[in-house]
Amino acid sequence: MILDTLPQQSPDALLALIKMYAADERADKIDLGVGVYRTDDGATPVFSAIKAAEAQLVEEQDSKSYLGPEGDTGFVNALMPYIFGKNPSMAGRIEGMQTPGGTGAVRLAIAVAKKAGANRVHLGTPSWPNHAQILSDIPIDAVFFDHSTADGTADIDKVLTAINSAAKGDAVLLHGCCHNPTGIDYSNEQWDAIADAFSRSEALPILDLAYQGLGSGLEEDAYGMRRVLGAVPEALIAYSCDKNFGLYRDRVGALYVLAEKPEQLGPIMSNLNALARASWSMPPDHGAAAVRLVLRDEKLTQSWLDELASMRARIADVRAQMAAAGQIGNLDLTALARQHGLFSVLNLSKEQIDRLRADHAVYMAGSGRINVAGLHSGNIANFVNALKAVAG
Ligand code: LMR
To answer: Which CATH class is domain 3-46+300-391?
Structure first.
């Protein structure tokens, strides 16, 4: 017997929270757990542009035969102007492949970095818990630095020290925008300094861009990543369409590589193909094909951009409403207005988080992370009252 030696693992805390929330029968329960966008009615609808593209796909698709480990290259290429800009200075040095969600892209990025000789990854904490899980599962050594300061700003000194101290064989993994879990992003000036530090460092930048368009805008959210790419010979960019196209369960992502010279792309991509083949063989097609159809049609593209803009506006509005609640005990809710994207971490103890769930049916991650988009006109007052009850 071999399998009976496996110890019981605790379930992924965030995914367990989804089940706990579903099992709660209280009508006024509030889900601030997993990072999905919600409308003011609390729904997570399929984008209209995706619905239209899916209908077209049903009509037009005449085969579901294999595509290959690189997935839908039309999808990968159609996204590039949105990610890298219309005329990027590094044009010709970037190529990508489709991955199963942003998770697949991060995993493939770390795996190829390790295969190429990387032996450490610097990561600001707190981070998306799956980052550390992937590093430990690959495995590769993780070196942690503080992402933010006690007063709730990005800790630029710590990230610069990490980049400056990184040696050959080190990678530095950064969130491109909408930091998960804190919502605390580097300012453009700080990104300039980060790009400058990378230009003098031997570290490999790995940029995780999972929320483009949900912070300040599609272009604005790409600023830091583009600045870094303009300053370095090589980098890896993990991308997700799961949030900005609302395709969560369809698992739509991509990994792009910036190489020093165009002729290096072939060997690098061949390694990515081999790693993907040995991991998932080929990525799921449907969601990526739908994105490709959206991006090849001007009307559908505009519809996608409009829907994304309205999501962004709603998130900003919820942040402003929360900030208006000001200070509750030790909680400074005004910080929410200075942060970006779906997430914020509230300074609550484990006991307060447990009480919020038990007494007020408020579900949030054990780290105090809330999904801001889980708040809407029907529950925001209840949430603020619940915070006053446990932390006021
Ligand atoms: C989240 O952080 O809530 C999302 O990225 C979903 C996930 O896979 O963890």
So the answer is: alpha beta
